[in-house]
Specification:
33% of the residues lie in helices and 19% in strands. It is α/β, with parallel strands linked by helices. The protein has two domains: 321 residues, FAD/NAD(P)-binding domain (3-Layer(bba) Sandwich), CATH 3.50.50; 102 residues, Succinate dehydrogenase/fumarate reductase flavoprotein, catalytic domain (Flavocytochrome C3, Chain A, domain 1, Alpha-Beta Complex). The structure holds flavin-adenine dinucleotide (FAD). Flavin-adenine dinucleotide binds next to helix 1, helix 2, helix 5, strand 9 and helix 11.
Length: 436
């Protein structure tokens, strides 16, 4: 079948928080193509439970900055962290403008706390903050403008300048979309792991494409394993038990019912402690207990988590739940500057797909939605300012290698796993070898 050839100003790939917010911040007169691999709602942003961190007052600036760096093992980009924190109040204002509703009482916003935050500074909407944010952003974008079930399989690039993308739709038609600017907002790599809290279809396609085109990457072995996913013997996505459950006082117990770690340490520290404990107990899980918390407060604070655990046969009010670590977040990615520019001209990467160094070696809880929004907006602003000077070109492209999507996914996985192995053999052996 002949490919469909299209021309636009900007292509945004992905409909999570980063892609939607980038699209919303582009000037309406630009021709925009927003495509996404699955249903528009099926993004990791939608799954976010805990919330979105923000600078609640100037007094908290130093502590927020230090918490972010401490969690990131001081490998963070200082400039990125400064920009993220300083932009946070403006971003929250934007979200409120789109109708996002955060928990509050008569005195103002009600902030919650998560692991490694020294104070409550996280805005949330029950335990479905991501759903609240993405559904309001989707409403603003207008679902009809999003091409669902359209998978980017490659970029069109010549002389290190990006000229558009190649995508495949649900009917397996190939689309060549020429554009002056392309924004990768394709999220992380969780779908490559057997146990992950991420959607299965989020498999790092943009990262593999970047590797294939020699685009510069950063920190790609910095992959966060979340300490507490609900343990189940079933295959598929693992249900996350948000950090805020521990933030509100939930405790971790070993097989003998004893505490074995300070639950509010950074995620990587708690994950390691759980892994060691599982080995000592010769078990594939430990337990999370909320039995010491006020029973009347649990259900209203964690309605989604409570319900999901009940469906799995655990009543959080009275039973400890089995939990285990699972792949959760990708700190590394395609290297970007502070405006989300990659090493290839006219190509941007925002959200989890990109890496501006804000998270360092380990992400502080609830910084990722914020980071996605802050830098997606900056990318949109730069694209708006620079697009006029870009001459559109239409290099020819051979599409014969894009017909077999399953084969392409396998090749992408191989490219990514090989690259992680090259960067950090220890991490690969510990967390990736069984997945490759
Ligand atoms: C269970 C869970 C809970 C979380 N809780 C929190 C939290 O409380 N606070 C917080 O700050 N962060 C949280 N996070 C992390 C956060 O939600 C995401 O990391 C962040 O929102 C990333 O947004 P994104 O837009 O970059 O990617 P995503 O939201 O993952 O969106 C990626 C998009 O790209 C599309 N896509 C992928 N590949 C292709 C392709 N080849 N072609 C076309 N489209 C493609 C996908 O379909 C999807 O629409 C959580 C993550 C998970 C999984």
């Amino acid at each position: 079948m002949e490919p469909k050839i299209e021309t636009t100003d900007v292509v945004v790939v992905g409909s999570g928080a980063a892609g939607l917010f980038c699209a919303l911040n582009l000037p309406p007169q630009l021709k925009l193509r927003l495509i996404t691999k699955d249903e528009a709602m099926n993004s990791n942003s939608y799954l976010a439970q805990g919330g979105i961190a923000t600078l609640k007052s100037q007094d908290d600036y130093d502590a927020y900055f230090e918490d972010t760096l401490r969690a990131g093992h001081y490998e963070n980009s200082i400039e990125s962290v400064e920009i993220m924190i300083k932009s946070s109040q403006g971003i929250i204002g934007d979200l409120l403008g789109y109708g996002v509703d955060f928990a509050h009482d008569e005195n103002g916003p009600s902030y919650t706390r998560e692991g490694a935050h020294s104070t409550p500074r996280i805005l949330h909407h029950d335990d479905i903050t991501g759903q609240e944010i993405t559904s309001k952003l989707l409403e603003a974008v207008g679902r009809c403008h999003i091409d669902e079930f359209m998978t980017m399989v490659d970029i069109i690039a010549k002389d290190n300048i990006c000229r558009g993308i190649v995508a495949v739709d649900r009917q397996k038609n190939i689309h060549i979309i020429y554009a002056k600017a392309v924004v990768f907002a394709t999220g992380g790599i969780g779908g490559l792991f057997r146990f992950s809290t991420n959607f299965r279809h989020i498999t790092g396609n943009a990262l593999a494409i970047a590797i294939d085109h020699d685009i510069v990457l950063k920190d790609i072995s910095y992959i966060q394993i979340h300490p507490t996913a609900l343990y189940t013997r079933d295959e598929g996505r693992r249900f996350l038990i948000s950090e805020s459950v521990r933030g509100e006082g939930g405790i971790l117990l070993n097989a003998a019912g004893e505490r074995f770690v300070d639950e509010l340490q950074p995620r990587d520290v708690v994950t390691e402690a759980i892994k060691e404990q599982m080995a000592k107990d010769n078990s594939d899980h430990v337990y999370l207990s909320l039995r010491n918390l006020d029973k009347d407060a649990i259900r209203p604070r964690f309605p989604n988590i409570y319900q999901r655990c009940l469906e799995e046969g655990y009543d959080l009010l009275y039973q400890d739940i089995p939990v285990t670590p699972a792949q959760h977040y990708f700190m590394g990615g395609i290297k970007t500057d502070l405006e989300a520019r990659t090493s290839m001209q006219n190509l941007y990467a925002v959200g989890e797909a990109g890496c501006n160094g804000v998270h360092g070696a380990n992400r502080l809880a609830s910084n990722s939605l914020l980071e996605s929004l802050v830098f997606a907006k900056r990318a949109a602003q730069l694209i708006a300012d620079s697009l006029g000077g870009i001459e559109q070109k239409f290099p020819a492209i051979d599409v014969s290698r894009y017909h077999d999507l399953t084969d392409l996914e396998l090749k992408h996985k191989q490219l990514i796993m090989d690259e992680i192995k090259k960067r950090d053999r220890d991490f690969y052996d510990k967390w990736c070898r069984d997945e490759a």
